[in-house]
Amino acid sequence: MLAGQPVVILRDNIERTKGHEAQQSNILAAKAIAAAVRTTLGPRGMDKMLVSGSGDVTITNDGATILRELSVQHPGAKMMVEVAETQDDEVGDGTTTACILGGAFMEQAGTMLTKEIHPTIIALGYRKGMEKALEVLNDLIITVTPEDREILLQIASTSMTGKSIESVKEKVAGIIVDAVQAVAEEKNGKTVIDEDDVAVTKEVGDSMDDAELVKGVVINKTRVADGMPRRVENAKVALLAQPLEITKTQVKSKIKISGSEQLTAFGEQERESLKKLADAIRDAGVNVVFCQKGIADAVQYYLAKYGIFAVEDVAEKDMKFAAKALNAVIVNKVQEISPEVLGTAGYVEQFEDADLVKIAECPNPKAVTILLRGSTQHLIDELERAVEDARRVVQDALEDGTFVVGGGSVEVEMMLRIRDYAASVGGRTQIALEAYAAAFEDIPKTLAENSGFDPIDKVVELKQAHTAGKKYAGLNVYTGEVVDMKAEKVFEPARVKKQAIMSATEMAAMLVRVDDMFVTVKKGPSGPVA
User: Which residues sit opposite 231 in a β-bridge?
Assistant: First the structure.
């Protein structure tokens, strides 16, 4: 008020939430997101059914997929979803862990705020705790090399355990490891993997057990003419960017035909030009052609006559992928085809039961394809999500050369060692560090809850084991016993844990310092729209 008159600072469509109310709002939002995915954690976690507005149904326990499908409105909740998205983009797995940790950090912050501990102190303690957690993580890592196939198989298997496709996880884990190892390259003494070099193609039909690794590419196309061979052995593949047809001239031109003889001659000349294209391909020793543009009917006829397998209108992305798989070069003109630009494959075939073309058994392929089959679309979609997660964790482990054990082992060790570290810090920061350490308890507690065991009893048993020096002790979710997770071969990449800790901590440290929120509310014709 100024001289009895109100001073309007904000427009009437701005909703302001400040002080303790704003902090509690963000804390509750973070806890709600964590609760949404909490029951999916671990091998015995539950699935969620997501139904879109159009009626599409998705059944999954993948944290990233669940949060992506939710229509989150609260700004604090959106930041939690961003944590999951970042986790998925950077490392491909651990989204549920990151969300649970973020929710736990915010819950602990709420308790400290009620004790009137300043948000800046909380944020400082959390950042110090993160540094200590990463230090503990470095002490717990175990090294792995590209030759350690058994360990890589266990890492892939751990990622897929608990999903609805678990019946085929051993076979699929082998396929994933082989695929990643096939495209791995050594650069400056480090293993480098381009995730785009491993494609995943899915087709409904048969069973999940029909999944296979194709050392080549699978294209969602069919051969252009039924008269062409369905399968070609010892394929010599040409990749063409130009259309195999008569192209229009760049300038306007007219052809004046005054008689039927001239029309016939013109048609014959055109057919002869198209035949020359097919002849040039045959003479170059090509028996398979992939064309990015169209193929004229006359060219199709002659290619079929010569026993050449041809596919038209291949997408540019598929052409580039095929070039890497075949070690071939995409050319712009038929005249540029030579032995040096051709790709080689063991065989190329058209599927009997699907509109797919498979180019397989390529020597030393720089790109490979994982072909998935399944009886229903829901099942094959979940299989694809599991394969993507497993592929990324194998890639993470190979690139970093490190992994850690699972079963809540890492979190319990961090909890105890950060708590010991907090005692040496002192002051109010010690309280924040102790709260940060306590948040890690949520991971083993959730694993126990989701497996049907008493969480308090299991966390106490884990603490006792780690206090006794058993740093790899974790919870066997099937028996409820505290066992050596290294001996049980429950492995996951260290990068997954590191990213989850960093993302969740930074999000919590940022949100806890927010004491004022200004939300612009859209107005409809009859008033504000929430």
Answer: 349
- Give the Cα separation of 254 and 7 in Å (integer): 77
Do the domain assignments include residue 238?
A: yes
Per DSSP, helices labelled H in 366-493 are 377-400, 409-425, 427-439, 442-450, 455-467, 485-488
Domain coverage including residue 438 = 14-143+404-529
pLDDT 10s digits, 347-388: 999 988 788 899 999 998 999 999 988 878 888 888 888 888
Buried residues in 493-519 as b, exposed as e (16+ CB within 10 A): bbbbbbbbbbbbbbbbbebbebeebee
Interval 420-427 mean pLDDT: 89
- The confidence score (pLDDT) of residue 1 equals 46
Determine, yes or no, domain membership for 2.
no
Specify the CATH number for the domain of residue 389.
3.30.260.10
Residues taking part in catalysis: 62, 95-96, 389
Tell me, yes or no, whether 349 and 439 share the same domain: no
Residue, of 306 and 68, whose pLDDT is higher: 306
How many CA within 13 A on the CB side of residue 406? 23
Considering the domain boundaries, does residue 6 fall inside one? no
Q: What is the mean pLDDT of the chain?
A: 86
